[in-house]
Amino acid sequence: MSVNQVKAFGTAAANADLEQMKIERRTLTGKDVEIDILFCGVCHSDLHTARNDWGGSKYPCVPGHEIVGKVIGTGKEVTKFKPGDLVAVGCMVDSCQTCDNCKQDLEQYCLNGFTGTYNGKDKHTNGHTFGGYSEKIVVDEHFVLKVPENLDAAAVAPVLCAGITTWSPLRHWKVTKGSKVAVVGLGGLGHMALKLAHALGAEVTLFSRSADKKEEAKALGADNVIISTDEQQMASVKNTFDLIIDTVPYVHDLNPYIATLHASGTLVLVGYLGPLDPVLNTAPMVVGRKAVSGSLIGGIAETQELLDFCGEHQIVSEIERINIQDINTAYERMLKSDVRYRFVIDMASLKNETVKN
Q1: Are residues 263 and 239 in contact, defined by beta-carbon separation less than 8 angstroms?
Q2: pTM for this model (two decimals)
Q3: Extents of the domains making up the chain
Q4: Is-contact 8 126, C-beta < 8 A?
């Protein structure tokens, strides 16, 4: 397969900074869409993959799976898009599209494994995929999404990850007007969960360890804020919530939150992957038919539904725009939680940079 070289920002090793490099993008196949990338969000997964924190990273590594851009070319079989369309690409660029899950629009749970936007197996080149920290990307039209023109394109980018990660459980557990929803943690995921649950008509509560986030949380859509370290406040919401979305990305005690679930309520983990410590006490779960579950991102149809919902309700992420040349500093700031609430790269900063051999 013939390829084209484009500018990108990536890293050659786990212990190296990100820097400008050239990568190869395939020429258009029949169903491909070529996208000129305008903005790319910065996710914690980008940092972890670049630094091989989870193992299995492939180098050179070009992160980025919160992509917004303009269509500049289409394959002969493409029917959904045309040049000039404002589009997006999220965490997936391929899946088998034939397994039971894919047939149910659950590509994120593809039984044969979906292809990640970066660090995934590229069936076209037999190499690995490169993400959105680049000038352009070529993607099968099935995995390209339409972006409402009335939204700030830069602030849409994190919706492709932080947004869909919280939207999917809200939809799966059928949150609607009158539902009682709580969110644990106010970061990139948490702030989107507040906005989306509020827009769905739920009564929304934030669990936080910090009292100084109260006004900020209410501005984002929270009706109430409960300080999770205050036993009296926690007791006041015992047996209350239909759904708790737990966005905390590190190991923490779930047991106090289980007590706040209503009968048949569910706590869904979207931020932490790994063993629990302390262990989960199943007694209140059995007695109250309460559940602990997990959720990844959403499928393509669900992500498009989210983007359309955001367009209707004027919902975007709270962002700080940066230039690609500042990405290494942004990674260090992310580790310190020094961002409200997502970095988004203005990719014009890469296009204007001198080409390096």
Answers
A1: yes
A2: 0.96
A3: 3-160+318-351, 162-294
A4: no
